[in-house]
Amino acid sequence: xKFVDETTIEVIAGNGGNGVASFRRERFIPKGGxxxxxxxxxxxxxxxxxxxxxxxxxFRYARIHRAPNGExxxxxxxxxxxxxxxxxxxxxxxxxxxxxxxDLLFDxxxxxxxxxxxxxxxxxxxxLNFKSSxxxxxxxxxxxxxxEHRKLRLELKVLADVGLLGLPNAGKSTLINQVSxxxxxxxxxxxxxxxxxxxVVRTSPAxxxxxxxLPGLILGAxxxxxxxxxxxxxxxxxxxxxxMVDVSTFDDSIDPVEKNVQDIRDIEQELRNYNPKLxxxxxxxxxxxxxxxxxxxxxxxxxxxxxxxxxxxxxxSALTGHGTQQLxxxxxxxxxxxxxxxxxxxxxxxxxDPRFDPKRQNIE
Length: 364
Fold this sequence. Notes:
CATH architecture of the largest domain: 3-Layer(aba) Sandwich
CATH topology of the largest domain: Rossmann fold
Strand content: 15-25%
C-alpha cells in the first residue's frame, strides 16, 4: 500500500431540521392545541484514532464527507429524527489543521481518541414549545441551524521512539532490517527508501521500542531538495535521533575525517534550517561500516574531536550486526530512564534488569 502522509478533506455536518406550526384537528376536537414537533439535529462528523490504520490513503480519494440533515418536525407531536453521525478513522499521529487559517485543531496521539470535526446544526422548535397561558394558539416556529462546514488538512507524523537520519545509503534501512522485523528495500543506490518504515525492536519479552527509518537527507533538504524533507516532520515526535554516517571510503585521495565531519555538519545544518527544536533533540552519533576502516578507534576519536562531540557515539556494522546489540540495549535503557524521570519514579535505570547483562551483548 502506498504511504500517504498528507492530504486535504472537506467535512460538512448536517443541517438541523425545521420545526413546524401545527394544531390538533380531530373529530369532536375542532380547536385542539398546538402539536408541532421539533426538527431533528444534523449529523456530526467525528475523527477517531485507530492503531490498525497506518496511512491517510483512504482520504486521498474520498475528499468530501457530508453528514445527513435532521428531519423536519411534523404535526401530532412528532419530532424529526436526528441525522446519522459519521466517524472517520485515522492513523495515530494524525494532526488536523484548519486549511483556511492554518491553525492546529486536533492531534490524535492515542488509540481510540475521538474528536469532533464538524458539529451538526440544532433542530428548529415547533409551535408546541411556544404555547403559554396567554398564547393558546402560537404560530411561531424556528428553522434548524446550519451544520459546520470545514476544510481540513490532515498531516501524519509517525509515532516512533527513535528516528534514523543521515545521508542516502548511510545504512539506515540495513540497521532497521538487522534489529527488527521490518523489511524495507535495501540496495546500493541513493534514495532506496521512498517512504517511512517502522520497526519494533524487542530487547526483552517485556521491553521494546519503535524505530523509524526515513528517506535520506541531502544538502538543501530543508528547502525542498531531495526526498527527505517530506518526512522530516516524522522526527518531531521521536525522543531520540540516531545520526548514521557511512565512514567507509574507497578513495585514498579523500581525507575520511574531513569528509565525515562535513557530512555530519551538513545534516546538522538541515535540521537547524527545518526546525531548531528538532536540532535540539537528543542525538547520538552512529558510525556505520566501521569494520571497513583500518583504525576504527583513531577515526572515531578524530571525528569526535573535530566536532567537539559530547553525546554518545557508537561504531557498528549494520550489515554484520557488529555493535548493534549494545546500541539497542543502550537505547532501551535511555528510553526507560527518560520515562521514569517523566513519571517521577526514578532517575536511574534498574541495573538488575537482565537486558543489561554484558554477557548477553554480542560485541567485542
